Amino acid sequence: MSVHAVTRSLHSKAIFQSKKMDNEYKIYEHNPPHLFCPGSKYIITGATYGKKPWLKSDEAKERLLTSIKKGFDHYHWTLEDWVILDNHYHLMGNAPEDASTLSLMINDIHRFIALWIKKNVPESKDAKIVMYNYWDTCITYEKSYLARLNYIWYNPMKHGYVEDASDWRFGSYYERIKAEKEEMEELRKKYKWDKVKVKDDF
Ligand code: NI
To answer: What residue ranges do the domains of the chain occupy?
Structure first.
């Protein structure tokens, strides 16, 4: 067993304590080698195998988000934004010093959600592979970052799930807007505006 394989298996055991199921996740050894950019932002896209809607239920999406958050914590990545659709997801992450942990992290996330799908989505019973590969791009300038951030936020509209992105619950956009609304509501309660004297008899 190579050092790499040992590290991978240690990490996997540490987070998920799950049994190895070789057929249900892909090991990402065939990805073209690419440059890892420590300390920078990455957009990461992952998908189910064959675009199957294994993530259709709310519970599946919640499970995936939980395993994404666990994976990011474990490998010291920062999850900044995300969106989860019925058969894929997009993430914006900030890489730690060692950005080469990306494939280990996604591998863990996919293995965990694949196990859950096999157990809880009856239609996946005969599927040999549940989760497919992932794609990542290291973002090197701000304009590119902001365009991709919008891409994530408005993705449910692009795929025709909703007409207004703020109606899609499974994304950071929804949480950001909700947090902002709550903050504004607190401000409204705290700083009364009805007794403020401003010339306004128009
Ligand atoms: Ni998409």
So the answer is: 15-190
- Give the CATH number of domain 15-190: 3.30.70.1290
Distance 84 CA to ligand 1 centre (A): 8
Q: How far is the CA of 2 from the centre of ligand 1 (A)?
A: 35
**pLDDT for residue 195:** 87
Rounded Cα distance between 95 and 182, Å, is 30
Q: Which residues surround ligand 1, an ion (CB under 5 A)?
A: 155
Q: Cα of 155 to ligand 1 centre, how many Å?
A: 5
At 99-145, the pLDDT tens digits run 999 999 999 999 999 999 999 999 998 999 999 989 999 998 899 99
Cα distance between residue 132 and residue 67, in whole Å: 16
